[in-house]
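Hi there,

I know you've been waiting on this one. I reran it after we fixed the sequence typo, so this is the corrected version. Both the input and the resulting structure follow.
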Amino acid sequence: MIDIDREHPEYTALKQVWRRYRDLYIGGERLKLHAQEYLLPRQREPGDVYTERLGRVFYENYIGSIVDWYSATLFRREAVVTFDGSNSRGKEFFSSLVDEVDGMGTGLNDFFRRQFVESLITGASYVLVDFPRTGKKAGTRAEEDAMGASRAYLVGYAAEDVINWNLDEQGNFDWVVIRTKLIKKDRVEDVEWRTETRWSYYDKQTFRIYSQAEDAIRLVDEGTHALAKLNRVPLFDLRIPEGLWMLNRAGLLQLEHFNKSNALSWALTMGLFAMPVVYSDRDWSQMVGESYYIQLGPEDKFGWTEPEGKVFQIAQDNLTRLQEEIYRVCYLAQAGGSLTGGGQKSGISKQLDFSITQEVLRAYGDAMKDLMRRVLMAIEAAREDGIAISVTGMDEFDITDFGTELGDAQQLLALGVDSPTLKKEIFKKLALKYLSDSRQDVKDRIVEEIEGS
């Protein structure tokens, strides 16, 4: 039996980095729970002081907000997916797939939005294409549809789940191993929860599922997978270039900001509890506190220690610079700490301010459309529906309003170009963009009506 739990060298090198980046993205109580891994102790700092600082730790989560902003902006208008062909049953299937891709009510765009966020955190995410496994083999396509065996669905995986792989000469997966863990009870009466570890192995033709029960790993299922006829592994990867991997770009800056902000907060807190200073030639043995008093001699003096505040100002300026640098390396320098950019601006001003950010968003949009297209086309090839699939959109990001686009379309039509195809394409683009949140079957009917006009 193969060593199913062996890890790829790249996975071994990056798994701790991925955990750190996920903590930085989530923040809150999760980061506080692991704060001892990120809050650096001072040189020769007493243990009880460091413990108290850990108890007071806080985190200003800029990178989490940046990732969520990119996700919300990129998917503000859904990708436009169209299906062309004469196979009405096939088009009905893909229309239903767009509305629910995973058997749990998740729409296509919501599913891929989650995978996009995962890729910004860890640099990669994965989508598995699968078909339901039935107890008997269908004789015809109609029987296959009736049994539900042709109802493809998608499963999303994070970078931490795909532990081992090999690539062929073309750079495609030769085989992969996916490891998942689930905390479960077999019966509600059971007292103890148990962790079930499962390994899924896929090559270009077959799959094998292993499960760990107690200390033994056993094979629980095997067979031919959904894309065997295509001779390819049914796992699709979304890999973000290092220059667009947001957590990798800003993670160290966010950690530096975390340590500096907590150090400044601790210093300010200690400054609120000023230490009394007594100037006296006599031996000093009196107790000092809120419920006590002190008696001074004629020549004695009393005062309080208090920092001048210069270092506080330097620290605050450094924190502001770190904050601005986090936004700058994430291509949001114009945000300046506020994702609104401050004040009301015209559409042209917004376009100028966000010109670099728009190019980054377009690069993300191209990557997401390519992933959607590869996944949907693989499903179509496995089902043999004979349908042409197109994925467009995700190239305008609410910088201008719909009125501007409508005005541009009116000017283009006013040129009088004698092309029915051009008019239909303009009408389809405007209609699908305006109705981006409508059901897929409604969009399909609108496209057919425009094409038939």
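Quick highlight: The CA atoms of residues 82 and 144 lie 25 Å apart.

Best,
R. S.
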